[in-house]
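Q: What does the assembly look like in three dimensions?
Context provided by user:
Components: two
Sequences:
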Amino acid sequence: MEVITKINEMRAKVLSVKDRKKSIGFVPTMGAIHDGHISLMRSARSENDELIVSIFLNPTQFDKGEDFDNYPRQLNQDIELIRKENVDVIFSPGTEEMYPDGYCTNVRQDRITDALCGRVRPGHFNGVTTIVTKLFNIIKPDRAYFGQKDYQQSAVIERLVRDLNMDIDIQVCPTVREEDGLALSSRNKRLNLEERQNALSIYGSLLKARSMFASNIRDAKEIIEEMASVIKKTNHTKIDYISIVNARTLEDLSLINEKALAAVAVWIGNTRLIDNTILE
Amino acid sequence: MEVITKINEMRAKVLSVKDRKKSIGFVPTMGAIHDGHISLMRSARSENDELIVSIFLNPTQFDKGEDFDNYPRQLNQDIELIRKENVDVIFSPGTEEMYPDGYCTNVRQDRITDALCGRVRPGHFNGVTTIVTKLFNIIKPDRAYFGQKDYQQSAVIERLVRDLNMDIDIQVCPTVREEDGLALSSRNKRLNLEERQNALSIYGSLLKARSMFASNIRDAKEIIEEMASVIKKTNHTKIDYISIVNARTLEDLSLINEKALAAVAVWIGNTRLIDNTILE
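A: Here is the predicted structure of the complete assembly.
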């Protein structure tokens, strides 16, 4: 496994792979690797000749006052975890390599980024679409892998690829959960024991939504209220949003008459966690 | 020569060229082909195996109230002009093909787009960077060709390619002029005989700048005033801007102590024309 930190070296590597007519699978990460990332790597490994994983903690997708400074950093440990997955290349550039002096270009979306997390994290998705465009241009993957846990991110990137005519297949893989249902997230590392327990209310609220939907309840407000009450019953939680939206456009639904997404963002102490489930 | 209007067909064509390991030269145009475009095609023809020219009158790079509706349209005539240049493919998609329902992604720059034309045409360069990104992703050229007449556009695109890590060589070719010095532009077609004569004052102002610079005058304000007086002497002209800027950053210079650009935008009757010259 190679670890490459320079764009020019990464380009040369990609060129040599393309010359051999090999397909490239790509898993972009911000490090703090967990089993969710690993499952993306395994999907990518089974579907491509060459597997490239990036580790880049992208400052531009954190708004001011967000947790960029406290985001878990563990590069050496990450490299060892990734090595076990038969990955060919880790691309791990520095911030100056990706955003050199004079940098001034951004990729932005409207509408789809106004919903859910976009509403409470205004600059976040511009940071995501910009860094993903850059990484796609460097790595030139045939397929790129994202987790359903960050559902809106996947939707934004599918839209990005379609709108900018990138020739890349976006694969969205199922959310990986702990045995008790908590969705894996790099931010889980920051929970203490009590918070870890409280965080289960997030999954609980999604189970509530699923069971109400299975009982043919289609009124979004009614479901959202029940989801909220699950979370409010738990100490030290603060709801950032609970939304039921069209799964494609992410626009709020009042009546669930098409494929829908129930999505939740909750503060557990000082840590903001998100999760979601499809209702269809 | 093929004329392709669908993105998928264009992609398939590009794929087959890449499979044969041929290089692709690309000249993007908005149609209304003139000898300036032809000179770009000839440069591209001599430096690449395959030559693709696009014709797409991009609505998003015209601000409200600008001349999108009156921009010259002459597709059949353009095709015949391009055919003579031994071009392999014309890519001429419709507006719906490039911006389908639900389209919501834009590529933007700050700083470099604030100067010169960006200051008076606020949405213009966002439209340019977005459509050029899309065309580059579809055509996947090795080299793309732009004219120095649209100096800021070339600078913006060079910055775009660098910032988003596109692996494309941007070639900026010299401005082509009529015998009397008027820079070729699709908008020249709209000038009547008197306006055509008055438009010469633009080139006159650039010659004035060059001669003052050659006489070791380095004070930008002094040169700009003399340039303005050349244009003001001519009837029915209105100066949009006259600027002397750093040729790389496009930031205003007061003292010309590095490679500079003297750039002019002037209304000749109802037609806005631009031109520029390097001072070094």
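Follow-up: Chain B touches chain A at residues 7, 11, 102-112, 129, 133-134, 137-138, 159-160, 163-167, 249 (CB under 8 Å).
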